[in-house]
Amino acid sequence: MALSTASVYPESTAAAFEIAARLGYDGVEVMVWTDPVSQDVEALRRLSDFHGLPILAVHAPCLLITQRVWSTDPWVKLQRARAAAERLGASTVVVHPPFRWQRAYAREFVRGVWRMAGETDVRFAVENMYPWRYRDREMLAYAPDWDPTNDDYRHFTIDLSHTATSRSDTLAMVERMGDRLGHVHLADGHGSNKDEHLVPGRGSQPCAELLGLLAARGFDGHVVVEVNTRRAMSSAEREADLAEALAFTRLHLAAPSPADPAHSVQLVRPAAPPSGGGPETSRSAASPVDAPESGPSADAPGADAVAAPSSDREPSGDRAEAGPEAGSETDPEAGPGERAGHRLDKGSTEGPGTAPDEGRDADEERHPDEGRDAGDRRDAVDGPRDHGPRGRRAPRLPGRRAGRARRGGKR
Prior knowledge:
eight-stranded parallel β-barrel, 27% helix, globular
């Protein structure tokens, strides 16, 4: 059982490792987003070694907020995520389907993922998403499809907040995934238009039933808690939520329940690669390179007013959110954000938004450190300042430093 670093937003990646170790999680899934530490493989390795927590998965930077992280080319993002996973010993790379306006990337996505999967032992697990909705309007923002079971992939990720938002039958989707289900994002939701990422057990999703089914079938993938704690009033409240999520997961994975006959999971073998493509073993075969990852913000007055760009190129201007997916589409699977006058839970289907979900206006963009004093920012970037286990000092990590001398002046 692992903790997604998106689950602690607005706290830092370094804080996620510290919290996961203190609460007793078995490992970590790293959401690659705008936090410099999440992008730095050596810094992540130091955190993993210092806290004694393995990095089990890497979430590729697929959110709107991460459109410029590790390149604007979506194939380069996947290549770098794979390289990071290999260096860190992670078994899985989580990836979202392309945005609809990433036309060339979307056309080659199924074949390209098969090809990359054939070049490594790391699993590329494609995650289920959802339609974006605004009032009674619906926009299909992902291509080839927000439901990856409508296409042929070697491995899948099931996200229970996303099944709630898409109003899908979760257990039926798991049945369609069969033994190609390789990764689980455990969260909950009530089926609203917002991607809620509630603590499991607080919504309407069959979280306990799914965990029982996984235990009964001997699931060998990872179950990752990916919840939204942005509304926590204190660090203690955040940790209480994450401890509750861990206890829920352990309880229901440890005691498998008989499968519901109406939703028994039928094991199927992975299908052959799609026609004209498929896994290629040659590491010299280059993945297709095309459109940058980006898209329109769904904060517009209505989803019907959101028009996709007419080309594969990145639209001008940033409409990024401030955080990863577990508080937004947490694709910080899009990043957390708040609009003037009200807050959004882990993203809204009004726009991609996990770590952490999208939907902020440009004038609301800010660095996650905004609002903290210099000392707090230093702690968030450099990691905990205590001496950690066995009296060792916490590792120094990359990032912006507060209190640097002004250019041409003294401190």
